[in-house]
Amino acid sequence: MRHDRWVIHHSTAGRLLVATPPLVDPNFDRSVVYMIEHNDQGALGVVINRPTPERDIGGLESWVERCAYPAVVHAGGPVEPNALIGLAWSGDAEVQHDNPDNGWSLWRRGIGTVDLGREPYEVAPPIKQLRIFRGYSGWGPWQLDAELEAGAWIVLDATPDDPFSREPDALWRAVLRRQGGRLAWVATAPDDLSAN
Description:
Number of strands: 9
CATH topology: VC0467-like
Distance between the termini: 44 Å
CATH class: Alpha Beta
Strand content: 25-35%
CATH architecture: 3-Layer(aba) Sandwich
Structural class: alpha+beta
Number of helices: 4
Shape: globular
Low-confidence stretches: 1-8
CATH superfamily: VC0467-like
Mean pLDDT: 87
């Protein structure tokens, strides 16, 4: 059923959602979410700045050894915490289409999801960068649009390096700083705003 109040003028797919401080939900406080999908059916992304101590996943050793540094599983979000999502970069920003027969889906600027049920050598073209996420961030129809209208998120362009940052813990501040102006100033906000 269409909700006439919310109309998606621009999908956030392939872009970043950067949480505005302070976002009340602790699952998303100071988070950076890479958006995989966003349409009138809902939205799905993965938090890309929450590395965990988990290094090994039984049965996926050949994928784990291809993970970008730091080679740990990342907490992708609060939904389905046992689900694993492989987000990869092919190195070819011109590729913009799904190719599930070759193990890739949802390509945007060379970034897409990979089928972790296959062996890496079965995926074409070859993977240049990889992150494995446990769980994901999901929104029902129009839910994300309502949060965007309420100012809970800043939507920014992603670079191919963002999901594979060597310093994921510093990504929230780094993404805001590179914007310049007032957004760069937001990056300096203290973790505890009451201390300001």
